[in-house]
Each structure stands twice: as structure tokens, then as C-alpha cells.
Amino acid sequence: MFAKKAPFNPPPPGIYRDNTDPDDAASTSSAVLLDDVDVFPDEELPAYEDTPSENPLISEHYDSGPAVDIDPFARPIALPPNPPFAKHDINNSEFSTCFPLYSTDVYNLDCLIRNQSSYPPGYYVHVNGSHRETKRQNNKETKSTVQDFDFLINISNLLVPAEHVVGNTMGELEFLPMNKRGYRGTIIPSLKPVAGDVESGGERSAWCERYVSDRAGVKSFMLKREIRNHDIQKLESLIRSAIAETKYRGHLQVTFPTSHDKILVYSPGLINQWRTTTWLRWVFYLTFLWVFAWPVLFFITSRYEVIKSVWMYADLPSGGNDVRRKPTVMSEVDWYNRWESTIKRAALARMNGQDVALDEEYRLATVAADQRGVEAGRNPANQIPRTGNAFADGALGLLGQGLRVAERYNDARGWGGDC
Predict the structure, then answer these.
(1) Residue 256: CB partners within 8 Å, gap ≥ 6?
(2) Together in a domain, 389 and 307
(3) Where do the TM regions start and end (predicted)?
(4) Which of 3, 26, 251, 280 is the most exposed place for a label (fewest CB within 10 A)?
């Protein structure tokens, strides 16, 4: 309950504009498309019956079949929806709810698990560059860290097959193996109850039924999302090589943070409401009351941590079977080739901030800017304005040569180093 994590706030998809060169600046915009609403035909309404509705809060319909001709990069990047009464930690990794129906109705809990299992976790590439700067004043030295660039790329769509729609494709559900200790409605990890002790029916529904029927006063049920078979070491190496080609001399960090890793259902009650209240948790942190509260919560909570929603980047881990390895959307190398120029431009533009992630729209804008640069490079004479005066044109030509020499010198010296 009281473990601390480095804050990470996943941004909504958006676009930055690379304004370092006015000629390369791309004007882009985004729009929200609304479906047309059909007009209901005139027909006789059914007779009214005063009977309670038995429909669950979440629809039972799931279509995991493929959708035809869907560009995986044109799909909207959809994060898992929040369940009712949901709260989350500071880095959007763990979401919790005390909604009563999830602890008292098997059908609603089962629908929640199925719905949440149809969304992958948020998955990002985080590139950060910084350097140390030393200032001397009045015989004193002060050192500070300067952010050179800091940006995110959302790669969640690489976890869903290209022909499928995000939200309609179930992740692969894994259940706690019989021979592995875990929380099966127990306080400490245990081998019991095993799957054979669970009542007949689907294993997912059976565990939901066992949780609902558990008479423990304080209990929790967890769904965990997991990403597998992504060679982050290879992709990190490729991204580092791209940044190195810009002659960057600073400190570079490449990480792969995730969001929406866990969904926790808590039984309704005052204790579970307190444990999910942010300001109250901070009171316990700052007063060190968590030293006493954490053991109490640990020994009174009946935990169910038996289900995982697994999302495969590829069918096999990277290694000796790379020839037979089939990625879900594209390989790490193919993705790098697609984003290499964009990553370089983002670094050179000193892009700073995590409030918006780079998306496909930004990548296409940088591709267009690159194409304009290639076309301009084929005829460098057009880059120098002509006045009609031979002396003035010659002076402008010498100035252009001098600027190109200075640019090559700066490239050789590099940028972003400690100073």
C-alpha cells in the first residue's frame, strides 16, 4: 500500500511542432470525429414493465475477430477505461476501486476482468538527455543539471495485431500455476486452493465466484497486465546510436515505462477506503505511521492475485530464433527505421516535456520536413538569395560558405556536454 515509486504520468497522444527551422516547421492539427447519429424510425413502443434491469455495468459483448484493412499506426491509441469509483497512484500504474458490485456480484466482476483484459497497458519509449553545468561567481561554484531534451513516444499499438481494433482484442489470460505459490485468497503466498478445488466452470469465472463468496471482511482481487518478448536492450542500443549521430555529448537515458499495469478491486468498507485515499496515505508517509499500518493491512487482507493479461510484442523472445520470431506488428529494427529521423529531430529541437507524447502525426511531419531538406540540398544555390548585384551576390556566397564551415565545426565539437 505504501510503497513509493518514481512519478510517471502517461500523456495523452498529441503533437509537438519542431520550430527550429521555419522552413521545416510543419503545420498540423487534430480533430475529433463524431459518428453520425441515425434517426430512430417511428414505431410503437413496447409496453412498460416495472422490473429491475439485470444487465451488468459493462457490456458482455466482445468481438476478438479481425477488422479488415486497419493501419496499426492510424488506430487511436486507447488506454484502458477507468472502472467506477476508480482511484490511481501518482504514476498511473495501479488503479483501484471499491465499487460494491464487484465484490458482491460474480457477473459484474467477470465482465470487468474481461473488459480490462481487452486493453493493453500504456507503453512508452522515454528519451532523456541532460548535462551538468558549473557556474562560478564570487569564488563559489554551483552545479546544476540542465535538461537538453525529454520526450515520450507511445508504442502501445505495437502490442495489438494490425488487423485488430484496440479494445476488441483479448490479451492472453494466464492463471497462477498449480505448482507455484501465490495469493489465492490467502494472507501469505500458498499452494492452496489449487485449480481442482475451484468449482466447475471457466477458470476466470470460477476465481471471480470464489472471491465474491469469500466472507473475509477485507479482501482484494488483482488483474495484472504484462508485456513480453520485447527486446528493449536492442531498441535502446539503436536509439542511443541515433542520438550519438547528432554529436550529443551529454548524459542519455532511454527507458520503457508503462502505465495501467494493475487493476485492484477492494471490498467496500472503511479500511479499504482509507487505504486508497491519497491525502490520508501522505499523512501516513510523513508521520511514519505506515510502519505500523502496513503490517496490519498485510495480515488482515485476503488477496486474490491469480490472473494476468499478457500482451506479446512477438511470439518468441529475441535471441537465437530471430529468423522464426514473428512480431505482433513490427520488429524492433523496423520500428527504429521508421522513427530514427524523428528521434534525431526531437533531440536537436531540444524538445522538453512529458505532457504530450510524440505520435504518428508528428512523425509524418518530420518525414515531410526531411523531404524538403533533401530537395533543397540538391540545389544549394537556391538557398542563397540573388540581388542582381555581382558584388553583393559574391559577399552572400562567402557568407553562406562561412556559415557551413561553422556548422561543420560545431558538429565536430558536439553539443550537450558538461561545462
Answers:
(1) 123, 124, 125, 126, 230, 232, 235, 236
(2) no
(3) 279-300
(4) 3
